[in-house]
Amino acid sequence: MRAHFRLESAIRFLGLGFLILNHSPIVAARVVGGRNSETQTSGRQVIKLDSDWRFSHSFENPDGISYDQLKAYILPGANAFIADPSGHHHRPSPEPNITVQYADNGFDDSNWEIVRVPHDWAIKGPFYVGSNVPVGGGMGRLPVQGVGWYRRKIAIEPADIDKEIYLDIDGAMSYAIVWLNGKLLGGWPYGYNSFRLDLTPHLIRGKDNQLAIRLDNPTKSSRWYPGGGLYRNVWLTKVDKTHVGQSGTYITTEDVSSSSATLNLAVSVENKANIKRDIYISTDVFQLNPETGKRGSKVASFPRASVSLPPGQSVDSSSSTTARNPQLWGVWTSQKPNMYVAITKLHTSASNHVIDTYETRLGIRTFDPSPEGLLVNGERVRIQGVNQHHDLGALGAAFNVRAAERQLEILRDLGVNAVRTSHNPPAPELLDLLDRKGFLVMDEIFDSWEIQKNPNDFHLIFPEWHEADLRSFIRRDRNHPSIYSWSVGNEVGEQYTGANGTAVARRLVEIAHETDPTRPVTASLNYAKPNMTFPTAFDAISLNYQGEGIRDTPPYSHLSGIKTSPLYSAFHSAFPDKLIEGSETASALSSRGTYIFPVTSEISAPINDTSGGNSTSLQVSAYELYSADYGASADKTFVGQDPYSFVAGEFVWTGFDYLGEPTPYDSARSSYSGIVDLAGFPKDRYYLYQARWRPDLRTAHILPHWTWPGRAGEVTPVHVFTSADEAELFLNGESQGRLVREQYSYRFRWDEVVYAPGELRVVTYKNGEVWAKATVETVGEAAGLRLAADQSLIRADGEDLAYVTVEVVDSKGRVVPQASDTITFDVSGAGELVATDNGNPADFTVFPSKQRKAYNGLALAIVRAKAGERGPIIIRASAAKLEIARIVIKTS
Ligand code: GAL
After folding, report:
1. pTM (predicted TM-score)
2. Are 188 and 170 in contact (CB under 8 A)?
3. Where are the domains of the chain?
4. Residues enclosing ligand 1, CB less than 6 A?
5. 26-32+242-365 to CATH, choices 2.60.40.10, 3.90.1150.10, 3.30.70.260, 3.40.50.720
6. Which of 242, 359, 452, 796 is the most exposed place for a label (fewest CB within 10 A)?
7. Which of 8-12, 173-177, 495-499 has the lowest mean pLDDT?
8. Residue 231: helix, strand or coil by DSSP?
9. What class is the 708-777 domain?
C-alpha cells in the first residue's frame, strides 16, 4: 500500500496524457503575506473584484429563469474536466430565446444595494423562529433561499485588448449563471466549487462591460447553513493569449530525504491566439517565507522546455529536477511547515520576452498512510483533528482570511493539527493558511452522490457534474502540501446499496487517482461494515462514530436506530494494509457555561429533559458528558481509540460550533457540537482535548463555575480536566479527596461535592510532583464590563478584523458566570461594527445588531477597519448599571 502511492505517482506522472492540468497557487499568491487586492507579475494581472457590486435578492423567482432551462449552455463549462471527449457537452445553437432584463447592459440597477464581495446575503437575517418556516434549524433559520443577482461593471483598458481575460469565482451559492454584456457565458451549479469563465469573446473596450450573475438557492438543499451569494472571492485574471492554464501547474515530489528531493513538474499551457506560438517554459524554485510571502534563495531550476502551440490548443509539458538539502514541510508541533515557491515563466522563443509568470506554492514532504498510522516525513504523527464547516459564525459564509486565521489560532492552542473540510471544498485561502500553519488536511468534496439526503441537494446534479466537480476540485487543490487525503464523500446513501453503491465509489476513486495519484482517497463510513464491498473501494478507512461504537453502551440502549459495537479493530483485521482513522468522532454536545443538574454518573449519555438537556431553554449541559443519540462524549471516544495504537487519529465533530444542524433542538440556530462555541469562546471540553493533545502543557481546568445562589447544600459535582495523573480537590480548604488517574479515564470527578459558596481549588500532580493548580470562586454581582481584543493593530484594508471580547465582571474583576446583561456596542473612528455574538445557540438577535445579551458572562463584537481610513478605532461597550468599558484599536 505504501509503495502503491509512490509507484503510482511515478507511473501516472509519465502518462499525463489527456489531462489538462490545473492548480490554485495564484490564489496563494494573492493571500499570503500581502492580502493584496491586485497582483501583477510580468504578463499576468490578477484583480480582486471586491467592490462596486450591485445586488438584489428575491424570495420569488424574479426573472422566470431556471438552471434546468439553461443548463445546455452551462454544461459545456464542465468539458475541461471531463476526461472522455465523447462525454463532452456541446453548446446548442441558437442562443436561448429568453429576455433577461437583469443581465442587460441597459438595466437600471441604481436602486439595488451596493455590496462588497465576499458577500453572504442571508447572514444579516432576520432568523426564522418557530415551526413551519421556510428555512428551519437544519439550514440555520436564515433567509438563504431565493434568487440573488449581482451586477458589476468591468473596465477594459486599451492595453487589455489583446489579452485573454477570465473571471475566476472561488465559490458562488448556488447554481451560478453568468452573463457578460447580455451574452450568456455559462455557470457552475455546485456552490462550493471554484470555476472559471472566459470573458474575452464578449468584452468591449472601455468601462462599460456589464457583468451579471444570477444565483439560485433552493430550500431543502443542505444539512447545515450554506449561506447565499458570491460568498468567496471573485477575480479578474488578465493574461497573454498564450498562458499557463487554469490550475495549470502540478508539482509532486519523490525520493525525499534531508539531502535531496526529486521535484516533478507538469505545466499546462493554453494558446488562445489564432496563430501558432513557439515558446519555452522556465521554472525556478525558491525558498518561501510563508508568513510574509517573501522569496528566499533559489534552490532548483527545471530544465527549460520548448513548446510549439498550434492555434487554439493546449499542451502539457513535464520535467523533473533535484532540490538539494530540502527543508521539509511538516506538521506542527514536532515539524515545521517549510515552503517553496516555483516561478514558472513562459518566454517567446523568438525574442525571449516573458509573456506569463505563474506562481506555485509547494512543500516537500512525504506522507505514508500506513496501517499503523500516518507517517509524515517518516515520523508517526497522530491526527488530532477537527471537522470544520465553512461558515465563520456571525460572518456567515462570507469568507474572510482573518476570521479563518483566528479559528486556526484557537484550534492550534487547543492542540489541533488537522482539519477535515466537512463536507465540501473549502475557500482556497483556508488551504493557504493550513499549509503555512502546518496542519494536515482531509480535503472533502461531497456529502451526497446519487442518493439524496435532502430533496434539493447535490444528488440532483451528480450525474452530470460529479466528474467535473471532482476533477476541478483536485486540480485546484493538489499542490497544497497540507492535504494528506482526498475524501470523496461523507456518509453517503450508497453505503446501503451493495454493488451499485460500490461501483459509484470506485468510479469516484478512479477519477481522484487519475487527477492526483499521490494521495489516498477515502469516504467516511457511518454504516458500511468490514465484510461489505463498499469499504474496499477506498485507500483508507475513515469511520464516522463506528470506531467508538454507536448506541452500544447501556445509557443509549433504549434508543431506536442502528447499534454498532466499536469497529476499529474489526476494520483493521479486514483491511490490514489500510490506514484507519476516525473521520468523525464524538458529536458530543454542550452549551458553553451552562450546567444542568443532576449530572449523569456515566462517562457518556444521550440527552433528554431529565438528563443533560433543557428543551425549553434549548441548552445542553457543559459537564461534557452528553452526546447526540448516535454519538459519544469525548471520554467515550478516547476509550474507543486508546487500546488500538494503529488508529491514525481522529477528527472530532466539530472544532467550532456552526450555523444550522442544532441537534438536539431543531428550534435553535446553531450547533452544540463544537469544542469552541460559535463566537470562538472555548467550552469546558476545550480543556479536556487540550490535556490530551498537549500533554506537556500544565493544564488544570475545573468545572462548573462556583457561583450558585440557591444551591447551598445541594450536590454539585466537580470535574477537572488536566494533563496530570493525580488531583486533589479542596472546597473552602477542605479536601474532597485525592484521586489517581485510572487507565482509560480522562477526567477527575468528585460527584458528591455539596455546594457551599467560597473557593474550589485543585492541585494536580504528575509523577508525584505538583503539576498545575486551578481555582474557581464564588463571585459577586455584576459591576462592570471588560474588553479585550485579539489584535491591537489591524490593517485599514476593509477586510482585516479585530475580535473584541466583553466580559461581565464583578467589583473584583472576576467574570460573572451567568451574567446575561444586554450590552450595547458603539464603534467610532476608522472602523465599523460588523457583527456581534455570544455563542448561545438559542439567541435569535440578528448578527449585525449593536446590542447583544451576554451569554454566561461573555459577548463578542467583530470590528473591521474601513478601507483606507487612518486613525484609531474606538470601541465602547455599555450595559445598564454596569461600568462602561472602552478599547482602542490602531490601524495601519
Ligand atoms: C454526522 C454527519 C455530520 C453531522 C453530524 C452531526 O453523521 O456526517 O455531517 O451531521 O453527524 O452530529
Report:
1. 0.96
2. no
3. 26-32+242-365, 51-232, 368-673, 708-777, 784-891
4. 223, 422-423, 490-491, 526, 544, 584, 587, 628, 653, 661, 663, 673
5. 2.60.40.10
6. 452
7. 8-12
8. coil
9. mainly beta
